[in-house]
Every structure is written in structure tokens, then in C-alpha cells.
């Protein structure tokens, strides 16, 4: 039996979720009106999944997510809310959430997402997927600029990654469809801007900034093994392997 806790202050939503999930004999469903009530319950074993809204009484959602992960590190958190602002979504995942579904979603989407969350995957409603990606792209750019103290162009960030991964000028020229002379110019300007004088220093900097595959393997930038991003009718699984630059997509119809 999978233990699922619903944290929802609106009785009609809470009861609707309970009835929906209770149809599955594999789910043991618990419920609470707010996070404090959830934590006050006596648990012989912790819930495996907590479904909660972004707006709750007694404790804000970010604090609640962090407290869930602090008490029960293996418990997954699914945000089920009407809030679709980029800041809300990104902060929820930063706090430790594993999924984010809008309340406007069909019941089938929730039922589809739960087994994948329980299996350790991440789930994002297709309606907000582009918002999530844009948010993390902006976040990564901000982190890089904070570390180096200067703003890098998109081309300079691409070049930094490729140089630090050991690519030669000829390889970079082929990858970026540029002339070798242009690559040499970009390389000179990049190293001058960062006040870095050799590739070894550049590699150390790039790893620290989290822009190379080595930084992924060292835990600076972590990606889930799989992210489920679509409905059962057209399920798409994006698989990222930490030991390889290769990415594969599996599409089931």
C-alpha cells in the first residue's frame, strides 16, 4: 500500500481528492486541513507522497515542503494548486517538491502522475512546462553571473562550456557553425573578461559555475533520471544520464 497524505484547507477539494485516490486499492489515503495538522498526526510509517496546495493556513508552502523533507527525507511532495506564476513553481522545486500540477488539470493527469512520483521521477503539468524551463534557464544564468561578477553573452556561455569540456577550436567551430578565426576571437575575449589565462583555470571556473558535465557528475547541478512531461495519450519521457552527454527521448503513443 502506498501512503498518500492530502493537505488541503478547502473541504470540497480535499474530499474530492480523497474519493478519487481511494478508488485505487494500492493507495492508503490520509488527509489534513493544513501542514501543522499533518505533522501532528501519529505516523507508524511516514507518507510516501504528500499532496498540498501552494496556499495554506498555518505555514506557507515553501516552509511546509522543507519541513516534510526534513522529517521524511524519502517522502515526495506534489504541489496541487491554481498558482502558475514562474516564481511559485521554481521556488517549490528548489524547496524539494517533486511535482507541480494545476487544479485545472483533468483527474486522469493526477492519477497518471502519482505512480511516477512514487517511483522517484518528477512531474510537471504540460501547461506550465515552458514556464519551468524558462525559470531554470534564467536561474542558471543568474548563478553564473553571480560567480564570475560579469555578464556573459549566450555565445560566451556556450564557448565557456565547450572549452572547459576539452573541445579544441576546430571542434568548437564545427559545433557552433563558426569559423576557427571567430572562435579564437571569442575565446580571447572570454578569457580576458574573466581574467583567466589558461584552460585549466577555465575548467575549474566552469565546474564551479556548474556549466560542464563534470559539474553534473560532482553534484553541482543535479538532474532527475527521468522527467514525465505529458499525458498518457502521448507520454514523453526525457531521460538524462549523468555519465554521458547523450540524451534520449522515448515517445509512447
UniProtKB/TrEMBL annotation:
Gene: nreC
Domain Response regulatory: 3-118
Coiled coil region boundaries: none
GO biological process: phosphorelay signal transduction system; regulation of DNA-templated transcription
Keyword annotations: DNA-binding, Phosphoprotein, Transcription, Transcription regulation
Annotated protein name in UniProt: Oxygen regulatory protein NreC
Annotated GO MF terms: DNA binding
Database matches in SMART domains: HTH_LUXR, REC
Sequence positions bearing 4-aspartylphosphate: 53
Residues annotated as domain HTH luxR-type: 145-210
Species assigned in the record: Methyloglobulus morosus KoM1
Amino acid at each position: 500500500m502506498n501512503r498518500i497524505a492530502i493537505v488541503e484547507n478547502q473541504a470540497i477539494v480535499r474530499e474530492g481528492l480523497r474519493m478519487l485516490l481511494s478508488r485505487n486499492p494500492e493507495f492508503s489515503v490520509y488527509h489534513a486541513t493544513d501542514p501543522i495538522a499533518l505533522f501532528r498526526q501519529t505516523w507508524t510509517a511516514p507518507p510516501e507522497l504528500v499532496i498540498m496546495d501552494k496556499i495554506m493556513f498555518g505555514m506557507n508552502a515553501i516552509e511546509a515542503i522543507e519541513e516534510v523533507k526534513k522529517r521524511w527525507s524519502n517522502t515526495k511532495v506534489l504541489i496541487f494548486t491554481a498558482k502558475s506564476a514562474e516564481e511559485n513553481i521554481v521556488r517549490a522545486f528548489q524547496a524539494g517538491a517533486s511535482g507541480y500540477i494545476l487544479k485545472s488539470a483533468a483527474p486522469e493527469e493526477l492519477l497518471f502522475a502519482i505512480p511516477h512520483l512514487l517511483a522517484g521521477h518528477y512531474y510537471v503539468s504540460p501547461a506550465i512546462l515552458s514556464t519551468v524551463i524558462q525559470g531554470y534557464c534564467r536561474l542558471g544564468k543568474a548563478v553564473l553571473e553571480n560567480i564570475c561578477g560579469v555578464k556573459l553573452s549566450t555565445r560566451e556561455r556556450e564557448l565557456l562550456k565547450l572549452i572547459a569540456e576539452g573541445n579544441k577550436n576546430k571542434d568548437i567551430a564545427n559545433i557552433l557553425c563558426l569559423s576557427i578565426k571567430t572562435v579564437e576571437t571569442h575565446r580571447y575575449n572570454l578569457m580576458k573578461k574573466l581574467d583567466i589565462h589558461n584552460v585549466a583555470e577555465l575548467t575549474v571556473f566552469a565546474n564551479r559555475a556548474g556549466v560542464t558535465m563534470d559539474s553534473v557528475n560532482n553534484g553541482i547541478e543535479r538532474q532527475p533520471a527521468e522527467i514525465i512531461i505529458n499525458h498518457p495519450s502521448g507520454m514523453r519521457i526525457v531521460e538524462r544520464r549523468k555519465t554521458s552527454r547523450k540524451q534520449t527521448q522515448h515517445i509512447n503513443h
